[in-house]
Design brief:
The chain is α/β, with parallel strands linked by helices. The chain contains seven helices and seven strands; from the N terminus they run H-H-H-H-E-H-E-E-H-E-H-E-E-E.
Length: about 190
């Protein structure tokens, strides 16, 4: 396991060897970005009691929402993520948390699957996405429901790019991007 993490860290560090402009840009501006955002200090100091994840994972979610310009986010799980909430624009944005997959919604920009325990209807899930959507699945390295879900979703024909960050998986659906699976490194830090 340790060798696997070292290999991932060295293989595509800073975007080396990545030929997709989209994925390279994502690596350099989201995964490897070290500069703090304006809201990190407020979240981590003033609202520390509301943080439900590691600092680095929260910052990753914040940067993804910001970079992808998400305006609608659904989190399937039990805890609302303060980093996502703060990253969304003040006007016209929607963020909801649900323990069940909602019915009758229009496509959303981001779906975060964290502590979701129920069996997920994949057809119903795909009704909530379009070409600009991203699905983020947490805990894909541990045996369990999320790992099985990751394995089944990343092989679906609708997925254009899948990125395995060891503990978190990202699925993109834009058909203009070359279909490929990437295994990359991301430092999650400690809670």
């Amino acid at each position: 396991m340790i060798l696997q993490k070292i290999y991932r860290k060295l293989r595509h560090r800073k975007g080396d060897g990545i030929h997709s402009p989209f994925v390279y840009d994502l690596i350099t501006h989201v995964f490897e970005e070290q500069l703090p955002f304006y809201a990190f200090e407020e979240i981590e100091n003033k609202q520390a009691s509301r943080i439900t994840c590691t600092k680095n994972y929260g910052r990753l979610l914040f940067r993804l929402v910001n970079y992808l310009r998400c305006k609608s986010v659904i989190e399937l799980g039990t805890n609302k993520n303060i980093y996502i909430e703060k990253a969304l624009p003040q006007k016209g944005a929607s963020y909801s948390i649900s323990e069940k997959l909602p019915d009758g919604l229009s496509p959303v920009d981001m779906i975060v699957i964290s502590q979701y325990q129920d069996e997920l209807n994949i057809e119903k899930l795909f009704m909530l996405i379009d070409t600009n959507s991203v699905i983020i699945i947490d805990n894909i390295a541990q045996k369990g429901h999320n790992k099985e879900l990751w394995e089944s979703l990343r092989t679906c024909k609708q997925v254009s790019v899948s990125i395995d960050l060891y503990s978190v998986g990202l699925l993109f659906f834009n058909k203009k991007i070359t279909n490929k699976h990437y295994k990359l490194y991301y430092n999650y830090g400690k809670k």
